[in-house]
């Protein structure tokens, strides 16, 4: 079963990737050193900023020229792992370790890849090798324990978990992982004890409450307690659709149909294409008499799953009840083609045919139904009885509860009227893998909203619908001097292969124009934007410097140069803290404390580090100062400058800039969010909560999580 990678594993991968930055030059001959280092550095930029496809292209270039180097294979493996190309990641780690067996991170990446590929023993071997170099690494220890569970080496897994927790007694994910191990051994008491311990270490772990809720629901049948835990999980993480699905199931067992329906409505609102929610809501709508709406839900499911015969049958029943007999017969036909021994289906179709005037067809179906019924009656084994026996043997589920639900893998058509549940709802978890702690990163670390950049692309946001506008960008687009419409956004989008190739071609085209007329600023600006998009910051800065030399009143060139310089600072700062468990980028100015509602903690920073980047920050600030001098209404310059001030820990100055940004644009959600965090850090909690509330109102959903944590 595929292992999923939450945010903390990506942070870990960044850390192990960055740990090898200093190794590159030792293996490069002098005659080609500059070019190789440059391409490697651009590739690492792309990898750090999660532009994985682009990073692979750069590492491919290095490998083509220097196939004997180990590091580009390692970096490419990490990119492939992030893209869930597990076989490719494993192969690249093999090539890396053949060239240098001492790159510890390669054992981690290969182990995770092998775990996803089902090679659990191979993963264990990799984790053991990595533990030789890092004997207390909690990721090695935790992943090894999980792989041992997957191999059903329970004694070994128990020892590994014990070592993990003994070495890291405050690592709540260790307890959460072990709780699922106890479920594998059917020891629910120990499982709940470990979840209780995790919650005692951090009461804001929504996943822990959700996991405990399912255990109570599945094993102890304590539905009220299960509901209370799931409510708490949703209080902490109100946009997790899977929690609503599980809570709906709990409410359904409590006979709260209205509450169940409301939860499915919420799932569809959050995740409009959630087929399980549509299917179950269709069943509930049918139960309460909302037949046309139920048909809409089943039709939606069939649009994406044209072989879902349960949806066909339920829709056929509804068409039949509404008098649309031809449509009902058409759906019954599809079901009976797939289930030719389904006597209830023949009986239902016989009635629909008879009502539509097909008396002969109805009679034939009725006779077929009676014949099948007698045959199954004589065998004393209906489909349903057989399936229920299997369910009970596998899941320790009571007969009453089994009558309420059907698992996705259960294709017994007699269960057409049961709520659909995921195969892994029983929370044995199968270690799908939390490796391990998506939630603590989501709930713990509070990053300020990022800076705005000039680009051609942005990620879609269904909640935040505001449009970023400044006259300078609009004038640039109207002039049509660039090939695509330029956007101002702080939701940058990684490029796919087609876009990457397009911008490489564009760089060459601009270079030709520059050869023809080296004193025209426009091609330099267009090429600088291309270079930034393909993560070549040094080349982008060279071109922007040239633009400003040629046209010192080009406002957007100053703005863009500040953006690119800040990206460089962020990347360089990250390389200095790769071996620190709590390292953060410069945009991660704040981290909410575990037990305090009145302050925000800052990451550690050494004075030497501040001095080393101080001049870089000043150069960024000078560019934003110039933008504001030339265009005092340029709201995003104030906002971005405030973010730089936050990175410098100059929060009073940051407040002044956020204030001005909000004055210029009263619906500026990101400015409210960041100003709220600054207020909280400065001890003005109520002002901070007010700003965070406004940010949430304007579409930044994560603001509500912060407010809840501050209120606990």
From TrEMBL:
Gene3D superfamilies: Tetratricopeptide repeat domain. The keyword Repeat applies. Residues 397-408 have a biased composition (Basic and acidic residues). Residues 387-396 have a biased composition (Acidic residues). TPR repeats lie at residues 104-137, 241-274, 275-308, 309-342, 635-668. Pfam families: TPR_1 (PF00515), TPR_11 (PF13414), TPR_16 (PF13432). This is Tetratricopeptide repeat protein. Keywords: Repeat, TPR repeat. PROSITE patterns: TPR. SMART domains: TPR (SM00028). PANTHER family: TETRATRICOPEPTIDE REPEAT PROTEIN 6, UDP-N-ACETYLGLUCOSAMINE--PEPTIDE N-ACETYLGLUCOSAMINYLTRANSFERASE SPINDLY-RELATED. The keyword Ribosomal protein does not apply. It comes from Coprobacter fastidiosus NSB1 = JCM 33896. Residues 387-408 are annotated as: Disordered.
